Amino acid sequence: MCLVVVGSVAYDGVETPHGKVDRMLGGAATYIGLAASYFAPVKLVAVVGDDFAQEDFELLAGKGIDLEGLERVPGKTFFWEGKYSDDMNDRVTLRTDLNVFAGFQPKLPESYRSAPYLLLGNIQPALQASVRAQMNGLRLAGGDTMNYWIRDFRGELIETLRDWNFLLINDSEARMLSGEYNLRRAAARILDMGPRTLVVKRGEYGAILFADGCHFIAPGYLLDDVFDPTGAGDCFAGGFIGYLAQRGISSADSAIDLQELRRAVIYGSVMGSFCCENFGVDRFRTLTREEVEERYREFKACTDF
Amino acid sequence: MCLVVVGSVAYDGVETPHGKVDRMLGGAATYIGLAASYFAPVKLVAVVGDDFAQEDFELLAGKGIDLEGLERVPGKTFFWEGKYSDDMNDRVTLRTDLNVFAGFQPKLPESYRSAPYLLLGNIQPALQASVRAQMNGLRLAGGDTMNYWIRDFRGELIETLRDWNFLLINDSEARMLSGEYNLRRAAARILDMGPRTLVVKRGEYGAILFADGCHFIAPGYLLDDVFDPTGAGDCFAGGFIGYLAQRGISSADSAIDLQELRRAVIYGSVMGSFCCENFGVDRFRTLTREEVEERYREFKACTDF
Hints:
Two copies of one chain form a homodimer.
Chain A: E1 3-6, E2 10-16, E3 19-26, H1 28-36, E4 42-48, H2 54-62, E5 66-72, E6 79-84, E7 91-97, E8 117-120, H3 125-133, E9 140-144, H4 147-152, H5 154-161, E10 166-170, H6 171-178, H7 183-191, E11 197-201, E12 207-211, E13 214-218, H8 232-247, H9 258-275, H10 283-286, H11 289-301
Parallel strand pairs in A: 1-4, 1-8, 2-6, 4-5, 8-9, 9-10, 10-11
Antiparallel strand pairs in A: 2-3, 6-7, 11-12, 12-13
């Protein structure tokens, strides 16, 4: 079943210990959409400038992503530049040019509005809410946020979260949002805010799913080399929602099937791990669905006891 | 089958965000021995001063730990004092008084020498080697080390490791010992040094087992409250070797049974998690074998997919 993905489409400049790329395709919606496209038909909502390259358009279209909602306006595409630390656990932002993204007002094409799945990438909470409000017949909706919105747009964010079925954030964001350091207690507080499912991402250490009074701990995949972690969290989100959309999972009646949620977390981890294997979105140029399934089996093999 | 445990028996002063204890029973061999005693008969080798309290002696003896090898000499028992950071991921050592531990020359009672299992706690590598040399008929031997020995006694440590079946260290120690940041590559280098099994402990994030070309990732247990993490790594070691001793696992012919090693890592994680639930060794005063099994099942439940 098809899935609407909203967020940034951008150009990134990235430096890691493995090299430096001055300008390459990036942005949360790009990563989410590419990762999700392995599981379900994706409909993208984003804005780019008139500098957006035809080859990048073709990469997305080539994955079957519906680009009717990719608005093209005069000006430059969102540009972000960052540099990673030697261990790649930290990064500094060197430059953020919002460009056309500053005026982003997501408008859903008519053909998007009845899609049953919605993934709201990290943008201003009020914009996330406006997208949510444009849709009807949703089976499952949720998304991501970040420290900036948690700190400076707290009321607006909490209002927005009420209508979500799931929230995907990292551990420091979960601590900031809940005011609790301990993750078990942080999760309990966040689950009181609306979403019945919470996934706390822990970078190289994997992720924890909290739902329905239970939790599930997924390890991070042990990569031989991390080339570029940019977008890994978004690819996690794409794999997670993509799998749930593929399976037609619904939040309609009660809690979501816990076993399916666990598998969705593993598929999220799988897609996040592939993302790190090359710069930017490059790994998705060659990645096959068979490789995705093979890595899912590897996760099984390295956690079973 | 019985197990010889060598290392420090100490008094600790510990401050965590949950409180402060000026002096309580501690030391690597104490924690390893207590944790292992839930699985197999333990024979302790350590040294204490004439200030060592009768009640502490009784706590160990009450767990069935053989104390014939616990030497008592004139002077004071090893004393360590430390303070944890607010998130308990860091600690500073405020005081280290080696006292009688400075002259520790482990001598194994005759009745210990044919024990089939040996766990060498973190002491000088040459002393670990001398203990290993006093034993015959070992089915499995291994232990722990730390940054100080890796940096300043490297040659001696590498010589010592050659005779071990397994090594248990934390992630930063694995990186320091191997010279590789990536854990997969670090593990490959360390497995070339002698031990055929490596367990890399990752604190709250769990542990990774490397053996026989495979790896197994165990999560950390999500505690509601971490009262005091002192000794958690040693309790991990105690649960790990204790389980292998209980099951009579041998390295005699080839690689150790991988499924049993995986279960041993989980039992290690179980014992490490209990250790954090109270100050010092206090949790072991009341912990039952039934609670250990219950937590093992919890690990299964929160990792299965």
